[in-house]
UniProtKB/TrEMBL annotation, chain A:
Keywords noted in UniProt: Signal
Span of the signal peptide: 1-19
Family recorded in the similarity comment: Belongs to the bacterial solute-binding protein 5 family.
Lineage: Bacteria, Pseudomonadati, Thermodesulfobacteriota, Desulfuromonadia, Geobacterales
Domain Solute-binding protein family: 75-440
Protein name per its UniProtKB record: Peptide-binding protein
Superkingdom in the source lineage: Bacteria
CDD domains named in the record: PBP2_AppA_like
Alphabetized InterPro entries for the sequence: Peptide/Ni-bd (IPR030678), SBP_5 (IPR039424), SBP_5_dom (IPR000914)
Source species of the chain: Geomonas anaerohicana
SUPFAM superfamilies named in the record: Periplasmic binding protein-like II
Keyword Signal: yes
TrEMBL record, chain B:
Membrane topology qualifier: Multi-pass membrane protein
UniProt keyword annotation of Transferase present: no
Identification of the protein by name: ABC transporter permease
Annotated organism of origin: Geomonas anaerohicana
Keywords: Cell membrane, Membrane, Transmembrane, Transmembrane helix, Transport
Segments forming domain ABC transmembrane type-1: 98-310
InterPro entries associated with the record: BPD_transp_1_N, MetI-like, MetI-like_sf
Length: 526, 326
């Protein structure tokens, strides 16, 4: 065993040799105005139109600007556009661009960049997933260096928000193949942070832009560490290796409560822009009866799911909007409350009778279905199990099937071969519901895969996206929420909370409806 | 011997072709396509977008055409470009991840053989004593304890509580400005936990194997003869028995060659090590065909070479085999 002894001795020597004067000890003591955040995933491509993952947009969001952006109250405000006008008929938007903005390499930002970004996005050769909103544009012009004008064939309310798309530097990209551009790993933007370095699989480093038009960010360096495991990230947080991360409900409730922890860290909590739902395949006769769908919703105790799965870190969802946003209707009259007795009555009315084994039957067929969900999401699985238990109590037999994401989509969702799915949507800032709910979106690979067809809903969706009048839009979306609550094509389950934690070294954080990142450039260290 | 070698090398070509054909078919049989994975459930992607992306990646062509194209590129050592949104050459992606994976695996392999062989010998020599049992328990604990759990416990103890070792990653922030000595020391510090845990977990197989071959050899007649002649026990064990007991280990070493470029996903994920395991896993999940095929081809080559080398070494080490084949 002398070998093992030697190894141990070497290790010990090594550890003690690295005493106080080792550079890592100094580096840790410094800290300074460096901000380290952890991410599960690695960015894929830093040319924003070519990437659709959240890691890429975390970085792009600090390196680039759009023409418009959402402020802390989720209202659109000018970003690279100082102001804009919508023509009275709602068909034309004229943006007046901010003057004196420079790209990180020193070039002037002008309307040419905006025009290029629009053109390259709609170019059929560009492999982007973001062309749809821009395809509604009939024509785009840049009358002078600081004016940009777009014309639409019909009024299109989400259009304005679509110009939040990060603007790309025309002088570096025009006439080149964007898919092979070095900018995808070495971006040049106009934003508050300048790209410095990307070490694949490890981290991306950004540095404050001293000439940023809103003023230089206080935190001089932004480090985006890739830590694929949530538990490891939590250890890094406690050891001081990262300054910010998103907590899971268990971590928030059970592992980050001590006095010592709360002195070192600030926890935040606000609704995330996402909801989880149970979606019924409306091609199946079983689910075409609205009474069955309403009965299922009545039988599910959403509050219990939130307590059990999210440890209370979330709120009940009644519809596709986030509580507190302008399109969200606070009190939805048609929403079925938790009421197992009513659930049984509704099923009775729909013709179901109690059969052998405590399972309801109609025409000799038991009321039984499978809830499918994707692998790797523990919350959804737990949620399905709680629903299974509740539905059993009213006489519905539920099986659960968990599948790998790719085969789940290809073999079941796309082919319409499912009964009930448990899935989630992110809630976009603009309340337009066309892609998920309009009856024209029921084709293969389209998002209305539950096949919900409702002409009244279609009319309201089209009306809502066809006007810039906020009061009118809100009215449409309020009516839509009532219809969805009455019809229950989905059982909307919950909106989880986002649970970020930031080291208390960082000051100046202002939680708002938009979360905490909205004033990141104003964060500072004492 | 030379004839044998040439025959073996020629055999590798059809074998490799067969492997690529099968893996290519299997990966394309898996449901879902790269384009779909990138645009699934995205309200911003239309059918036209998808068609455009499929054309961009050449997925609109029939499968055999795709395979032919891939093969002809491969013959020019071009592994193609990744289907991930970064669209980088596959070889670049592999190149930046292979050094850390190989270094980790080589060190772990040396430690594994360096520790497991003596442990196995010791257990065999002291067969059925308390020491033997203690060793068995020790190596089986290492085998049975889930790596991720042990890793988290060690991270908490050495990283958070005692703050002796870094928790994850392979370099400290800002280490690029340090001198070469400190950079190396920093890397070594980062590797202590992963390598110790990897080695601990892999001791069982090899040491048990060593133990059983050693016991078998020790019961041979020539060992009894040596003992009868009054040869010292040390000499018997290390000169007479060990040489013969090590023969099968050569084969095991040959099998370890392809494992040098493979990484464990769980392991790399826990320690945030940007290695091959993660790359391959992400490639499979995103149906990044060129990347998956690239890694598989390299792995297949190494497996075949490893087998060949093991056979050759065996022939060199064991005169019976060498002379048997003439």
């Amino acid at each position: 065993m002398s070998l093992a002894r030697t190894v141990c001795l070497l290790l010990f020597l090594f550890l003690t040799a690295c005493g106080q004067d080792a550079p890592w000890n100094k580096a840790q003591a410094q800290g300074g105005a460096q901000f380290v955040t952890g991410s599960i995933g690695e960015p894929s491509n830093l040319i924003p139109i070519l990437a659709s993952d959240s890691s890429s947009s975390d970085i792009s969001g600090l390196v680039y600007n759009g023409l418009v952006r959402y402020d802390k109250n989720l209202k659109l405000e000018g970003d690279l556009a100082q102001s804009w006008e919508v023509s009275p008929d709602g068909l034309q938007i004229t943006f007046h661009l901010r003057r004196g903005v420079k790209w990180h390499d020193g070039h002037d930002f002008t309307s040419r960049d905006v025009l290029y970004t629009y053109r390259v996005t709609v170019d059929p050769k560009t492999p982007t997933a973001y062309a749809e909103d821009f395809k509604q544009v009939q024509s785009a012009q840049a009358p002078d260096s600081y004016t940009f004008r777009v014309t639409y064939a019909k009024p299109f309310a989400p259009a304005l928000a679509s110009w939040g798309m990060p603007i790309l530097p025309a002088h570096l990209l025009e006439g080149k193949d964007i898919t092979k551009s070095p900018l995808s790993r070495n971006p040049v933007g106009t934003g508050p942070y300048i790209f410095k370095e990307w070490i694949p699989g490890q981290r991306v480093i950004l540095e404050a832009n001293p000439k940023y038009w809103e003023g230089a960010p206080h935190l001089s360096r932004y480090v985006y560490r890739i830590i694929p495991d949530n538990s490891t990230m939590y250890m890094e947080l406690k050891a001081g290796g990262v300054d910010m991360m998103g907590l899971s409900p268990v971590q928030y409730q059970r592992q980050t409560t001590g006095k010592e922890f709360l002195a070192r860290f600030n926890k935040y909590r606000y609704p995330a822009s996402a909801y989880t739902y149970l979606g019924y395949n409306l091609r199946l006769p079983m689910f075409q009866d609205v009474r069955v769908r309403r009965a299922i919703t009545c039988a599910i105790n959403k509050e219990e799911i939130i307590q059990g799965v999210l440890l209370g870190m979330g709120q009940i969802a009644h519809g596709p909007y986030k509580p507190g946003t302008w399109a969200y209707k606070p009190k939805v009259d048609n929403d079925p409350a938790y009421d197992p007795v009513n659930a049984k009555a509704l099923l009775q009315e729909a013709g179901y009778r109690m059969g052998a084994g405590g399972i309801l039957e109609k025409d000799g067929k038991p009321l039984s279905f499978t809830i499918m969900t994707n692998q790797g999401n523990d919350q959804r699985l737990k949620c399905a199990q709680i629903i299974q238990m509740r539905l059993k109590k009213v006489g519905i037999d539920v099986k659960i099937r968990v599948m790998e994401w790719a085969s789940f989509l290809t073999n079941f969702i796309d082919k319409g071969k499912f009964e009930v799915v448990l899935m989630g949507w992110t809630i976009s800032q603009d309340p337009d519901l066309y892609d998920v709910w309009h009856s024209s979106k029921t084709g293969p690979k389209e998002l209305n895969f539950i096949h919900y067809l409702n002409p009244e809903l279609d009319r309201l969706i089209v009306e809502g996206r066809g006007t810039f009048d906020m009061a009118k839009r809100r009215d449409c979306y309020y009516q839509i929420q009532e219809i969805l609550a009455k019809d229950q094509p989905y059982t909307f389950l919950y909106v989880p909370d986002a649970l970020p934690v930031v080291t208390s070294r960082i000051k100046g954080i202002e939680p708002a409806p938009a979360g905490i990142m909205h004033n990141f450039i104003k964060w500072y260290v004492d | 011997m030379a004839n044998y070698l040439i025959k073996r090398i020629l055999m590798l070509v059809p074998l490799l072709l067969g492997i690529t054909l099968i893996t290519f078919t299997v990966i394309h049989l898996a449901p879902g396509e790269p384009v779909e994975m990138a645009t699934a459930m995205s309200p911003k992607a239309s059918a036209a977008t998808r068609a455009r992306l499929r054309e961009f990646y050449g997925l609109d062509k029939p499968l055999h055409v795709q395979y032919g194209m891939w093969l002809s590129n491969l013959s020019r050592l071009d592994f193609g470009r990744s289907f991930a949104p970064d669209n980088r050459p596959v070889l670049d992606k592999i190149k930046e991840r292979i050094p850390i994976t190989i270094s980790l695996n080589v060190i772990a392999l040396i430690l594994e053989f360096g520790l497991a062989l003596p442990i196995g010998i010791m257990a065999a020599v002291h067969r059925d004593t308390l020491l033997d049992r203690a060793i068995s328990v020790f190596v089986f604990v290492g085998f049975a304890v889930p790596t991720f759990w042990l890793a988290l416990l060690c991270m908490y103890l050495f990283g958070v509580k005692l703050a002796w070792l870094p928790i994850s990653g392979i370099h400290s922030l800002g280490s690029d400005q340090w001198s070469f000595f400190w950079r190396t020391a920093d890397l070594a510090r980062h590797l202590v936990l992963p390598i110790s845990i990897a080695t601990f977990g892999s001791l069982a197989g090899l040491s048990r194997y060593m133990r059983s071959t050693m016991i078998e050899v020790l019961s041979q007649d020539y060992i009894t003869t040596a003992r009868a002649k009054g040869v010292r026990e040390r000499v018997i064990i290390y000169r007479h028995a060990l040489k013969n007991a090590l023969l099968p280990v050569i084969t095991l070493l040959g099998f370890s060659l392809p494992a040098l470029i493979g990484g464990s996903v769980i392991f790399e994920t826990i320690f945030s090590i940007p290695g091959m395991g993660q790359l391959f896993y992400q490639g499979v999940m995103a149906r990044d065909y060129p990347l998956v095929m690239g890694i598989l081809v390299i792995g297949a080559c190494l497996t075949l070479i490893g087998n060949l080398l093991a056979d050759l070494c065996y022939a060199v080490a064991d005169p019976r085999i060498r002379h048997g084949r003439g």
